[in-house]
Description:
Layout (H helix, E strand, L loop, with lengths): L50 E5 L5 E5 L11 E5 L4 E9 L1 H9 L12 E4 L2 H27 L5 E7 L5 E7 L7 H11 L2 E6 L2 H8 L10 H4 L9 H6 L6 H4 L14 H7 L10 E3 L2 E9 L4 E6 L7 E4 H12 L41 H19 L1
Helix pairs in contact: 2-3
Amino acid sequence: MGCTSCASGADGQPKGCKNNGTCGTDGCNKLTVFDWLGNMSLPADMAPFYGVEVRFKNGRKEFFDNREHLTLSIGDVVATEASSGHDIGIVTLTGELVRVQMKRKKETLNLEALPKVYRKASQKDIDVWQSCRDKEAGIQKQSREIAMRLDLKMKISDIEYQGDGSKATFYYTAEDRVDFRQLIREFARIFNTRIEMKQVGFRQEAARLGGIGSCGRELCCSTWLTDFRSVSTSAARYQQLSLNPQKLAGQCGKLKCCLNFELDSYMDALKVIPKMEVKLKTEKGIGLCQKIDIFKGLMWYCYDQQWMNWHEIPVHKVNEIIELNKKGTVVESLEAYVEAIAPIKKETFNNVVGQDSLTRFDQPKNTNKRNRSDGNARRKNRKKNAT
């Protein structure tokens, strides 16, 4: 995810390019697309496609029409058409691969209906754009103070200035509907620009801000995940997870998206596993299920009123007992269906190359006893020679 300017410094500390998603090399971009058609020439009877994909702050991408047939390449800073004035963005894709992306995202292929690219950004355009970006952090703090003063139940999570500074878009999250008419008046008076308010979901907010998840890696929503599917607590139940809200919730406060990643595998494995509510009838009593290991195919049962004594039974034998119970047959006991499982041998260090023990230098050599025995032998030899 990092560009060359994000590499470590001389002292080993990360430098960070400080571009906040506007890296010129496009290395900090979310889901950077490799132009595998860039080095291929078009057939003689095929006209080039003049659509361009342009990225703005926090991975927001839009398609534009290069009507002037400018020579553009990935990483170029361009001035594009906006609702009023112009915006500044970075080209992320050109050529035929833009047509493929537009089809995948179900965009219209009629380039005349798309906004157009005005020109390559001049140094003046870049200076105005960068000055607007520098003001966003301070304005965000000030806008939150204004929202708190007006007692609005909302959180302003991010601000995006248009490239020419004529408009500011405020992204916010809220549980309920918010009447921010007075807030917009305050913003327009203080910031002296056009104001647009956009409400985003809590997952979209986490994707825009980014962060580190409980797994120790960057958030999926801020690196590669683009579609947000609904997540329910039943996904945790199917995977035998503890229903602890603090562990199941992500940084957005909602259930983690990764609960859906392995859910299909668990659902397939559960097709041959009986439900935990099914009771086993034995001569020694009723067997109640206490635990399931889905992928090992094991179930733990205990007798009613004997909660501490669990019996590990394979799934195929549990199904066998259930079939016998359906036919009216009561099995002898749960112990009769327990399989003896050989313990797993732990591998220890093997001296495969004939080297000595790794602890051979831990204890000092005891040379005093050998020196003492050698001295006694010399004295005895002297006495024999003297006699």
